[in-house]
Each structure stands twice: as structure tokens, then as C-alpha cells.
């Protein structure tokens, strides 16, 4: 739509011998551009906002860990949010671009925290302040920051569904047998979303008429073998999500995630769904897992990116195509995949 990147063909990207249809998708301007990212510290250089501004997205989506506060002191939390708002590049984005998002543990206030965090209600209000949510919004009286927003574009629509994987999330199981931090709970034990949010999500997907439905989860949905936080720590919730997506018949469901300080694409086929489910992880904006030496992910497509980056999704409605890009400093496309949703 507003910026054209040079594309390097490789085995896991679109082949240089791609069909004419695919080549046209890459070369044409998108009808809608979503940019997103996570894991952003105010005490480190915010080096990517100029690149995000140059991309000129239609919406910026915060994927969580938007600041690193880790506190139940609301004065300190508010000060850090305000510092981020005053960061020159982000401040310019605020003035030019629609901004929505969710939180993760470090802006929630408790590392790996969930339902047990005593300051979660006060923290929610500070998050909503950061997101410039009006004082009279119904979101101010809802438990949890889950929400959705529909974008209408020339007779087409995209529904962005923002999940809260913190407010209701129950106990994790520490792994005392291996060098991993966590292991999956017993099947059926615990919840990520809680009953009320699950019912809300089921209704969102069942009633949507959007051509694309973007589910924003602060933690990874597909990748689950690394031993850190993920949907895989609640295997029954993974299965429930797959069933909800399939039963809903919602079109073009895509998952966006963060948290890991790496960026990668994961992809699988769900029973009853006639398109692959992609989980696009983008993390982090100001710091990355630069000592990354490998980890298993049976769903991975391509390679892991472990430098600072953000994500872009370019939507082409006429061909029902989405171009997924991991973008680094100076606007360099570090990796990309393309998916047609027929």
C-alpha cells in the first residue's frame, strides 16, 4: 500500500518461479496493512518506530509487554506508560495511526502472572489510559482487556480480536524434572481465558462476517515445546480453540503472538478448516534473544529471527491473499511468507 520492499526468494518463501497470480500479489499495493509488535522497553533504544512510520500501516497492534513495569505500584506504572507515549517516534505514530492492543505479563505487572495478581484491576485502568480508551467506555467496567474492532475497507472487512491471556489465567505447572521452566498442566486443568471470555470469543467467531479474523494472543498458540509460557501449557485450551475456530466457520482466522523475544511463523491444518492456521510471532521491538541457539517447533515455517523486529500483514482482498513480513531495522524484510485464503 505505502511501501515496497525488495523480496529475496528462498525455498521457504515464495519461489522465484511463482505463478503470475502470486507475483502480482507481491508487487501490488495492499488494500489494508496491519503492523504489530511486542516486548518494548522504555529504557532501551526504541529503534524501530521510524521504520513503522515509514511503512505507514492502517493500524498498529500492541501484542503485549508494551512496557516492562513488573510492579503493583500504579504511580510507577503510569509514569512508565507516559514515558513511552512521549518517545518521539511512538508519539508521532499516535498522531497518525489507529492504535489498539492487549497486554502481557510485564505490563500487566507480574512476571508470568495471571488471575492471582492483586493489582490487576488497577493495572487494567492504567492500560486503558495508555490505549486512550474514553472514561465512559464499557471497557472500563469489564474484567479483563479483551476487545475487538472491525475495519471496513471498500466493502471488505477485517475483524481484530484482542485476547486477554492474563486476567483469568490460572496456575502454571513448574517443570522440576528437566531444564525447562514450565510443563503442560494435566489435561482439563486450568484456563487461559476464563469462562466469560471464552463465551465472548465463541460469539465473536460465530457471528463474524469479516473476510479475515485476526486473533491477537500475547503468548504463542502453536509453538509449545520450548518450556516457556504458551497455550501448550493448557493442552485442553489449545483443543478448545481449534474446535471453536472450526465450528464457527469463520473466514481467514490468523493468530498474532509475541512474548518470546524471537520472531517466527508457525503453521498447521485444523480439522474442519479449509485453510491453514498461521501463528505469526513478532518479538521484540527493543530487545531480542540474541543468544538463541535453536529450539524445536514442529509447526515452524522458515527460520527463527532473533534480532529486533516487528510484523506486517498486507491484505489483498481481490485475491484473498495475505503477505506476512518480519521487518527489522531500516525496513529490511528479514523473512516473509504468503498465504491465499480461498
By CATH, the topology is Purple Acid Phosphatase, chain A, domain 2
**Count of helix runs:** 8
Query: How many domains make up the 3D coordinates?
Result: 1
Characterize the main sheet. 7 strands, mixed
- What is the gyration radius calculated from CA atoms? 19 Å
Strand adjacency order, main sheet: 4-5-8-9-11-10-12
Please explain how this structure is put together.
This protein is of the alpha/beta class and 342 residues long. The chain has one domain (33-340): Purple Acid Phosphatase, chain A, domain 2, CATH 3.60.21.70. Helix content is 23%, strand content 24%. Strand 8 (212-216), helix 8 (235-248) and strand 9 (253-257) form a beta-alpha-beta unit. Residues 1-26 have low confidence and may be disordered.
Offer a concise description of the structure.
It is built from eight helices and 15 strands. With 342 residues, the protein is an alpha/beta fold. Helix 7 packs parallel to helix 8.
Amino acid at each position: 500500500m505505502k511501501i515496497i520492499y525488495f523480496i529475496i526468494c528462498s525455498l521457504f518463501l515464495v519461489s522465484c518461479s511463482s505463478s503470475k497470480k502470486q507475483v502480482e500479489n507481491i508487487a501490488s499495493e495492499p488494500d489494508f496493512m496491519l503492523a504489530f509488535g511486542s516486548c518494548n522497553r522504555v529504557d532501551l533504544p526504541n529503534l524501530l518506530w521510524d521504520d513503522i512510520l515509514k511503512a505507514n500501516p492502517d493500524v498498529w497492534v500492541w501484542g503485549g509487554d508494551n512496557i516492562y513495569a513488573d510492579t503493583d505500584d500504579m504511580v510507577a506504572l503510569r509514569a512508565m506508560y507516559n514515558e513511552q507515549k512521549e518517545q518521539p517516534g511512538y508519539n508521532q505514530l499516535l498522531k497518525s495511526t489507529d492504535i489498539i492492543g492487549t497486554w502481557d505479563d510485564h505490563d500487566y505487572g507480574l512476571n508470568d502472572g495471571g488471575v492471582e495478581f492483586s493489582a490487576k484491576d488497577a493495572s487494567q485502568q492504567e492500560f486503558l489510559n495508555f490505549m486512550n480508551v474514553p472514561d465512559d467506555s464499557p471497557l472500563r467496567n469489564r474484567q479483563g482487556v479483551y476487545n475487538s474492532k472491525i475495519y471496513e475497507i471498500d466493502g471488505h472487512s477485517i475483524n481484530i480480536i484482542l485476547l486477554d491471556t492474563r486476567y483469568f489465567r490460572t496456575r502454571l505447572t513448574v517443570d522440576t524434572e528437566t531444564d525447562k521452566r514450565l510443563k503442560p498442566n494435566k489435561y482439563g486443568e486450568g484456563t487461559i481465558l476464563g469462562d466469560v471470555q471464552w463465551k465472548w470469543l465463541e460469539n465473536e467467531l460465530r457471528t463474524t462476517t469479516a473476510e479475515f479474523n485476526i486473533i491477537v494472543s500475547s503468548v504463542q498458540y502453536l509453538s509449545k515445546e520450548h518450556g516457556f509460557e504458551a497455550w501448550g501449557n493448557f493442552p485442553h485450551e489449545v483443543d478448545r480453540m481449534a474446535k471453536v475456530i472450526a465450528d464457527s466457520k469463520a473466514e481467514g482466522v490468523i493468530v498474532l503472538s509475541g512474548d518470546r523475544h524471537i520472531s517466527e511463523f508457525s503453521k498447521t491444518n485444523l480439522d474442519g478448516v479449509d485453510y491453514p492456521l498461521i501463528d505469526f510471532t513478532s518479538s521484540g521491538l527493543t530487545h531480542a534473544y540474541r543468544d538463541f541457539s535453536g529450539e524445536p517447533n514442529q509447526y515452524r515455517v522458515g527460520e527463527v529471527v532473533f534480532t529486533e523486529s516487528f510484523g506486517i500483514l498486507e491484505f489483498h482482498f481481490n485475491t484473498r491473499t495475505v503477505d506476512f513480513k518480519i521487518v527489522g531495522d531500516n525496513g529490511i524484510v528479514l523473512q516473509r511468507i504468503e498465504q491465499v485464503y480461498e
